[in-house]
Amino acid sequence: MSDAETRIVVVGASLAGLRGAESLRRSGFTGHLTIVGAEPHRPYDRPPLSKGVLTGEVGADATALPNLVDLDADWRFGTPATRLDRARRTVTVETGEALPYDRLLIATGASARTWPDAAQGRFAGVHTLRGRDDADALRRDLAAGPKHVLVIGGGFIGCDVAASCRTLDLPVTLVETGPTLLAGVLGAHLGAVVEALHAHRGVTIRSGTKVVALEDDGTGRVVRARLADGTAIPADVVVVALGAVRNTGWLSGSGLSFDAGGLDCDADGDALDEDGRPDPRIVAAGDVARFPHPLYPGKPIALEHWGHAVAQGVRAGRRLAGLPEAPYAEVPAFWSSQGGITIKSVGLTAGADGLVIARGDPKEGRFLAVYGREGRCIAAVAFDCARWLPAYAERIAARAPFPPEPGGVDAGPMRVLPPAFPEPADEDAA
Amino acid sequence: MSDDTLFAQVKDEAARPDPYPLFAALRECPVSRQEDGTYVAATHAAIESLLHDPRVSSETLPPADRPKTGNPFKDWLVKPLRDHITDTHRPFIFRDPPDHDTLRAAVMRQFTQRRVQAMRARSHVLVDEILDRLGDARTIDIVDDLAYPLPVTVICELLGIPPEDEARFHAWATQLATALEPDTLQDGAARAENSRTFDAISEYMQGLIAQKRKHPKDDMLSGLATEEPGGAPRMGDFDLIATAILMLVAGHETTVNLITNGMLALLRHPEELRRLRDDPERAPRVVEELLRFDPPVQFRTRKALCPITLAGVTIPEGAPLVLLLAAGNRDPEVYAEPERFDPDRIDNRHLGFGGSLHYCVGAPLARFEVEAALTALARRLRNPRLIADPPPYRPGSALRGPKHLRLAIDGIDP
After folding, report:
1. Cα(first)–Cα(last) distance of chain B, in Å?
2. From the centroid of its chain, how far is CA A25?
3. Residue B150 located in a structural domain
4. Chain B: nearest CA to A268, how far in angstroms?
5. Which CATH number do you get for residue B393?
6. Contact status of A62 with chain B (Cβ, < 8 Å)
């Protein structure tokens, strides 16, 4: 079969799906390209959804991602994929139509984890935040001037929402089960630094406790939350920010190996079947792909980072186009803005057994911390000090010794500290 | 293969019109030791790596070894102002974090969107005024007639220097720019001349700052002298003088070279000059490509604070480093057809403004000044021809650019 007759289907009109499709075309693919999206929107950018979109600074409709290449694709919006038949090589979408494929890119991403009690989760005023429409709905509720906002979960999304509420001058309480905000990602040592930033901006923080129930006013509108210690806090808007689950449910019956933590792939990104054999026709990329990372041996990982969605999407496109590709080995990286401080990170902190302040000083709010495990550098996190990160990314890629050598510009105290991760580690830390 | 005199050849004036073949030879070793113990980084990857390496310092001047009383006021009375600035209040281009960050942040707060946008509009007016004044000239020197007057006026207006003092600033800036040349430090006469200039400009600035404190206006110097309501502490006098001098010099010489290098490149690529005239919207692409193809800042110097191993070479502690930005800009590992002037190239991650913490503060100013100058030249000069190719160059190898760029023209359109 010639390339021009080849049919490639991209499931997921997401950042990874879009960059994957562009990469296919850039790699010279001239065949038929179909892109299937569950939402009614063109691919859009998520980082603004928990920040500028909530404060009204950016419209939800202004988050569309630019197309970098003329895709010449058949777009199917608002039609979630419902079934994958690998024997017939078709993807069935919600309308019942079966789309044939010769090769397939799975980039279906993840969804917000919902409140465990479904009835409480449906109360008016209770939100999750993952997509454009979620952000728009939450923005409307916040613009109406609620008396008290409650955010459940002190990960990045929870912190962003609380910060946006303060920008809008709304009273907000953030409840986190761990010892500090962001303790799952950064450990309690640096989590405490982030927590102080948010407290300083007026967020009421309740760490080390848990919301056990949401209560309504009798008409289905949320009015308060009950905590594990028996106390209650009033809340007319609640944001459930408990991490994400991967969108893999539609793969039931496909024979591929998956669960709510991701679709299993090999080092090349090819999807694995239930017997662990790669399906050479199917590649996965972005949040949904769980793969072995050469820098982090042990359990395969699924990353939720923006840059990862781009890099793995681009790589997947090249692979589907038939170009030879080395196994994916990008050093993971993310950024976030917390309480006016820009946090950037390279590597993965999970499993770190030591931490040093290598540059700057946390007291001045500008520093760089390096995380180590078993004598090797595994991650670096910069607070308003990102310029040195590429140097540390090189060291992490080279599995350089930990602690790193002292000296240089703006050298920190370099004392090895415990990162203080909560037990058990937050499974959706990243 | 390695020729440890290559960088000496770069600094030699004979190389000024076209140093790029030497850069290509230097790129063969990403990091090479020169005969004088300097280490030169010449590939894009090696330069990027060192720009982001915390073992690399910009504190190129040794700390002061003179005894101090500990009382700044007394020190100030007993010593020339310039010593105080060069010892402990160096401009932030020569300083490391954390001091660098504090000073730079104070300046960045003055680069407000409103101020920058107003000056963008103003630069088009200034360019047209300058060209109008040339009347029906049949020759034009891009350097003296346009590239020098424009940036000095822009930076003086931004800082809030009275227009009647602009001419003095022009002379001071030209002299002080030589301080960025590595060989100036070895040349006694040049150092003495720089010192005199430094004294003159420092004293002038001190007076002006006192005036701004008393009667603040809506300009950057007033903002720096009087900030900051509920914000950071006010910058001290010495840091403020040093910062103002830095902005004057850095906002000046570099832009002159970029305008001149730009017009030279356009005249050597007439089809690009025509395309810019027909479509002024191309100006941003042209300027970005110029910053890659022929950048005004060809290299910057640094120092290794610790031993650094890079590309198989171990740079010893204390070694002087040269980051050869203009060589990295033509690295075939990063750019397709790097020797071609091509404003349409995509993903042009040039090193024309440096990178990392010392990335050019004035980059937005440089961009719009040069866009304004080149679009006006392309539109208004009738049939421009180079009188000499290559043109004569000024001596500097770090800040490199033509001394004159004379063109024959058939007139200047309105």
Report:
1. 56
2. 26
3. yes
4. 25
5. 1.10.630.10
6. no
